[in-house]
């Protein structure tokens, strides 16, 4: 709502409603998306994220593209205990490839991955499952 001026709601692949952002609020969006008047109040939390342990850190993740260039070009992020990380983007932006690399589907990737502060070597999918990783579609 901070970056757009119009919202269109689709549910189960069908048009539900649309409106200008200035005329709606989050409960309106939730109602249109879910079909009911659910409430998801924001919980105020006083968490000092600097003091939270880093559970996953990815440094300079790169995935070369066939024919030259990169599917992923030095992607880095940290995930703290209790945090929820969402990765989104348009088709072809590399979001799927980030997870595929973390799962061991692209052995040609480069970069470093740390779990609970320990560097891991991503070998294959079975090893990543043992490391606590999972991916579903």
Give the tags:
two-stranded antiparallel ribbon; 137 residues; 3 helices; single chain; alpha+beta
Account of the protein in words:
18% of the residues lie in helices and 32% in strands. It is α+β, with helices and mostly antiparallel strands and 137 residues long. The model has no long low-confidence stretch (mean pLDDT 89). It has helices at 26-34, 95-103, 125-130; strands at residues 6-11, 14-20, 54-64, 70-80, 110-115, 118-120. A hairpin with a 5-residue loop joins strand 3 (54-64) and strand 4 (70-80). The strands form 2 sheets. It has a 4-stranded antiparallel beta sheet, covered by helices on one side. Strands 1-2 form a two-stranded antiparallel ribbon.
Please specify the SSE layout and strand pairing.
Layout: E1 6-11, E2 14-20, H1 26-34, E3 54-64, E4 70-80, H2 95-103, E5 110-115, E6 118-120, H3 125-130
Antiparallel strand pairs: 1-2, 3-4, 3-5, 5-6
Mean pLDDT: 89
Q: What is the β-strand count?
A: 6
Main sheet: which strands, in order across? 4-3-5-6
- Unreliable parts: none
Instruction: Compute the number of helices.
Output: 3
Strand content: 25-35%
Structural class by sheet pairing and helices: alpha+beta
């Amino acid at each position: 709502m901070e970056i757009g001026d119009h919202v269109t709601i689709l549910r189960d692949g069908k048009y539900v409603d649309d409106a200008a952002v200035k005329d709606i609020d989050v409960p309106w969006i939730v109602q249109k998306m879910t079909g009911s008047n659910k409430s998801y109040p924001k919980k105020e939390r006083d968490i000092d994220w600097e003091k939270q342990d880093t559970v996953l850190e990815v440094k300079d993740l790169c995935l070369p593209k066939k024919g030259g260039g990169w599917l992923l070009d030095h992607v880095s992020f940290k995930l703290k205990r209790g945090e929820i990380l969402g990765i989104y983007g348009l088709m072809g932006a590399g979001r799927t490839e980030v997870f595929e690399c973390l799962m061991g589907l692209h052995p040609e990737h480069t970069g470093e991955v740390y779990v609970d502060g320990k560097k891991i070597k991503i070998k294959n999918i079975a090893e990543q499952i043992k490391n606590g990783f999972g991916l579903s579609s």
